[in-house]
Prior knowledge:
Layout: H1 5-11, E1 17-19, H2 22-27, E2 41-43, H3 48-64, H4 66-77, H5 83-99
Parallel strand pairs: 1-2
Helix pairs in contact: 3-4
Amino acid sequence: PCGLPQMYSQRYGTLPVVHATGGLVDSVKDISVGTETATGFHMTPLSPEKMQEVLYRAAELYVKQPAEFRKMQRNAMNEDFYWPQAMDEYEKAIDTTLYDPPVTQ
Length: 105
């Protein structure tokens, strides 16, 4: 489980800095995808040096490109973590797995 803090953070426009692992990768879109869709910052490997690098990058974006930072904040606040939607997606994947015929050559 990825927990909820990064989702709360995004809802309030506080861009999360997360270790790029598991559900955190699924729920936080890294700046590497572009500020048009990004909602936070990933770091990997998990180390003090990488943490410092990513925090400096976030601070630099905030200071030098405030419009891009605000765009990421809006992206984050508009994320939809509505559970029924996620359940529908899981059910669709399960149905496909159970009921679609296997592909054979």
